[in-house]
Amino acid sequence: MSAPAAPGRLRPPAFPANWPARLAWAGLVIYTIYATSVLDVTLARFIAGLGNAGHFLSRMFPPNMAPDKLALIYTGMVESLQIAVLATFAGVLLSLPLGLAAARNLAPVAVYGPARAFIAICRSFHPVIVAILFVKAVGFGALAGVLALIVATMGFVAKLFAEVVEEMNPKQVEAVRATAAPFLNVLIMAVFPQVMARFVGLTVYQFDSNLRNSTMVGIVGGGGIGAPLFTAYQRFDYDVVLTILIIIVALIMLCELVSGRVRRIFQ
Amino acid sequence: MTHAASAATPAEGSAGLLAIRHLRKEYRAGQPVLKDISLDIEGRGVTAIIGPSGTGKSTLIRCINRLVDPTSGEIWFEGRDLARLRGDALRLARRRIGMVFQEYNLVERLSVIENVLSGRLGYVPAWRAFLRRFPADDVARAFDLIDAVGLGEDFATRRADQLSGGQRQRVGIARAIMQSPGLILADEPTSSLDPKTSVEIMELMAQISRERSIPIVINIHNVELARRYAQRIIGMSRGEVVYDGSPDGLGDSHLKEIYGGEDWL
Q: Which segments constitute the ABC transporter domain (chain B) (predicted)?
């Protein structure tokens, strides 16, 4: 509209206004303001809370290193680690066929549909909620935690694995199919080589995630370090809380290092 | 349909290895890509199918090994009508047809010898493929073939994605021979290669066809290469065969009919 291109003829605007997008942004801003006012989220409360936080943090120091506490934490951490390893192993094993069944380019609709639905159900609840269900079903202890994290693992690994399979190069599969390979051989020699590296990557990532979640399922009775952590909070033993938190962070970082190595091996 | 009834036995009037009768393929109803193709392929030599892009050459070749399902017609190969086979019967028939692709279609993350041994996947059970416990004879033959296509045994354990285009196509050819095929189909095997490598690959395929007496049907854009290496040329245009004869008989008037126009000649 501003610079005339040719006399008597207007060029179309180079960057036409996207009204739906503008409306969406405006809606987001308005809703944010509304939600803030409804939920009593105010700056004054936040500033008042900072004082409490400072007090809380000061009571955390120094971390409690008493031998009896450390022994308790050690037992809990080992159990958490075991929960994570078991859940990852079983969950990944189940995710392999489930992911293949949920890949549109491999599975017929009759298989693909139910597989996708099952994965969606696995994904729809937070592991802690699933853990509550399993604690009710199988009782307190690590088994409930393992089962809860198996569900979480299937929801994540199977879904993303199915997407990896859907993105593979169909030409390589066609070539192996053309050699008269039966379905299983096509999987072994054309599909797996293309997707295995990504599958290992997903597994390693999910192990990290399971390790973090395995420290939480204990809060609802699913075993692991969660129970001692929660108890320490409730008894105001903030120095014990800090010790546990430090150990969790150290363990997660250690796993990060190891998982990087594992990924490189399978490149 | 009336044609199909009249040509029930392919043996009539042909002693060929492959007999295509009234083959028709429509991806969308009413828009045939192949219109009533009938061909006999002899049991030896190189046959080149030439024609412009989008004329159905690829579809024709893929109908033969049923990577594409024909709409109607018959494809007789080694005494069976491939167009009618399904399931395991189709798979067993397919074992006898090797295929070479334009973009090689090797499994990139597998080694050269694994790719070559893929040619045996129609013969070996899944546990052998999974554990890579291929029969010793197959492994020995795979090494021989890697040698025979001009790569040398050092290449056996190299990963396919480390190879150049020409080297990959050699692996693709070895994989096809590994099937012990009665026929090799090649879909534009030189179109992704430079001119010199294209000649080398055509030379290799002609040599294999000669020395191992495997007939080869090649889709190819390049008329010069087709003339040089094929004993028979089939010209296609708009889903129909418009030339079928020796390379010597292929004149400018035929090329004009196949490709249309004449400025490029």
A: 18-263
Q: Which helix (DSSP H) or strand (DSSP E) does residue A49 occupy?
A: helix A43-60
Cβ B126–A178 below 8 Å, yes or no? no
A67-265 maps to CATH 1.10.3720.10: yes
Q: Does residue B59 belong to any structural domain of this protein?
A: no
| pLDDT for the residue B112 | 96
Q: How far apart are CA A88 and CA A211, in angstroms?
A: 9
pLDDT value of residue A8: 67
Do the chains contact at B92 and A178, CB–CB below 8 Å?
Answer: no
Say which of A181, A186, A193 has its CB closest to residue B110: A193
Q: Cβ of A171 and B103 within 8 Å? A: yes
Q: Name the band, by pLDDT with cuts 50, 70 and 90, for residue B11.
A: very low
* pLDDT digits 0-9 by tens, B150-194: 998 899 999 999 999 999 999 999 999 999 999 999 999 999 999
Domain region containing B150: 106-180
Q: What tens digit of pLDDT does each residue of A55-108 get?
A: 888 888 888 888 888 888 899 899 999 999 999 999 999 999 999 999 999 999
Residue B39, strand partner residues: B20
Q: Does B216 reside within a domain?
A: no
The residue to which tokens 């008989």 are assigned: B249
Q: Please check whether residue B255 lies inside any domain of the structure.
A: no
From A228's Cα to the closest Cα of chain B, the distance in A is 46
- In chain A, residues 141-170 whose CB comes closer than 8 Å to chain B: 169
Q: Touching check for A98 and chain B: CB below 8 Å?
A: no
ipTM score for this prediction:
0.89
The answer for residues whose C-beta is within 8 angstroms of residue B128's C-beta and 6 or more apart is B134, B135
Phi, psi of A69, rounded to the nearest 5 degrees? -65, -45
- Token pair 């809703």 is found at A31
Q: What is the mean pLDDT of residues A184-212?
A: 92
